[in-house]
Amino acid sequence: DHHVNYGSSSGLQDRVTFVHKDPSQYDASIRLADLQVSDTGTYQCRVKKNTVAVHEVIVTVQEKPATPQCWTEGEPNEGSSILLRCYSR
To answer: What is the mean pLDDT of the chain?
Structure first.
């Protein structure tokens, strides 16, 4: 029907678009912009012609890691060794 049903997640309305302007040209792919953890769920593509074909995809959005904390251990002198450490949650 050339439209996207957003279900109960109204936050998707401004972030979901068809990849191609006319999905009837055999590509009804959608693009989700600005992914959020709350976008995790089951997405369904339903195509109606003579019959109905349905395909479901499970999307899991993970949180992006926090900015890493980095530091050195040891003295940065010629001929000596230092250790570079980074940590992220």
So the answer is: 84
47, 53 contact by CB (below 8 A): yes
Beta bridge partners of 41: 59
Q: Model pTM?
A: 0.57
The total of structural domains in the chain comes to 1
Report d(CA 31, CA 56) in Å as an integer: 15
Percent of the chain with pLDDT strictly greater than 90: 17
List, in order, residues 6 or more apart from 87 with CB less than 8 Å away: 68, 69, 70
Range of the domain at 10: 1-88
- pLDDT for the residue 82: 92
